[in-house]
Amino acid sequence: MSDAMQQLTQAETNRLIRADLKATHTGTTFTVRAANGAGITHTVIGWEIGYRPTSADFDGYYSPNTCALVPGPTESDIDTLAARYSSWEWTGDDGVRDHAADRLVATAPGQLPAVIHYGAGNVTARPHYRNLDL
Asked: Quick one: CA dihedral 23, 24, 30, 35, positive or negative?
């Protein structure tokens, strides 16, 4: 690691994730939880995605064929945000992980960007789907 690189802890990275979520998805409540294990840190972003059944074929579980989502952040939206903060990336279908590239990030207005290595390991999105008609 060079002197110009800034290594963030998992807690510091999670604070940045929370601030980013609050700024980009106002009105949605998120949880950002840290976990450690198997030699790697892990951060899980949780939130609720509401849906309403739209078909008589609805079987009690969310399906895009029988339900409509209410407006709000999708799992894809949060996966994209999570990938920006992950310090690991999957390098293929074989489940092998490797260090993600360090990122050049503007850390404060008016200052030059700095090379950042985030400390959150894997960052994943885990939404909870809830039937709003119940």
From this structure: negative
DSSP type of residue 109: T
Please report the beta strands in 1-134, taking only residues with DSSP state E, as ranges in sequence order: 5-7, 30-37, 40-53, 67-69, 88-90, 97-99, 103-105, 114-117, 122-131
Higher pLDDT, 7 or 66: 66
The answer to whether 93 and 60 have CB atoms below 8 angstroms apart is no
Query: 45: closest CA among 56, 35, 60?
Result: 35
Give the integer Cα–Cα distance in Å for 78 and 39. 25
For the entire predicted model, the pTM comes to 0.81
Residue 8 DSSP code: P
Q: To which residue do tokens 């949880």 refer?
A: 31
Return the bridge partners of 97, or none.
Answer: 90
